[in-house]
Amino acid sequence: MRGAAKQQALWVAQRVGSPAPPALPPIRGRLPYDCRHTEQTLALQFPRWKEWNILGYLEQLHRTHGVEVLIVNWPSAHDPVGDCYNARYSNAAMDDFNRWLAAEAAARDLPYLDLHDFLPTDDFFDSMHLDPAGQSAIAARLADVLDPIAREIVARKKAEARG
């Protein structure tokens, strides 16, 4: 995220002829947090998260319009403090979400890619945002999964065009 913002700022500076913005200091490492506060915030912000089930919509797009769907459980940095997985989620909430997402994808017969524990914490700027190494690793993994799907779609479209 910061990398993209930096690139955009440099592009704008070049276009308007102003000097490049100063370099931002790297954000690395764990920031201290209070697990009890994380649990309280999570309970207040997401009390009914299972009701926000976007997988139903994705299933409908797939079944009704033939849109290819891949459910991806995106990685989150493991930064444990007490009963918390990281500054955003408790261990219990993370486990509950991971089980729920896998079960929902399976129940809807949607392909599922679990990247939750795919990366080490060092590949994150913070609990959610990947650094360039993390982005590259995710891109390579997604390419491995998406390449056969894309090839199948192209072959199907060519076959349909031939009639």
Summarize the structure.
By secondary structure, the chain is mainly alpha-helical. Helices cover 53% and strands 4% of the residues. The chain has a two-stranded parallel ribbon with strand order 1-2.
Descriptive report:
The chain is mostly helical and 163 residues long. It has a single domain, classed as Rossmann fold (3-Layer(aba) Sandwich), CATH 3.40.50. It is 53% helix and 4% strand. The chain has a two-stranded parallel sheet.
Structural class per helix/strand content?
Answer: mainly alpha
The percentage helix is: 40-55%
Low-confidence stretches: none
Instruction: Assign the CATH topology.
Output: Rossmann fold
Chain-wise SSE layout:
Layout: H1 2-16, H2 35-45, H3 54-65, E1 71-73, H4 91-107, E2 112-114, H5 132-162
Parallel strand pairs: 1-2
Give the tags:
single chain; 163 residues; mainly alpha; Rossmann fold
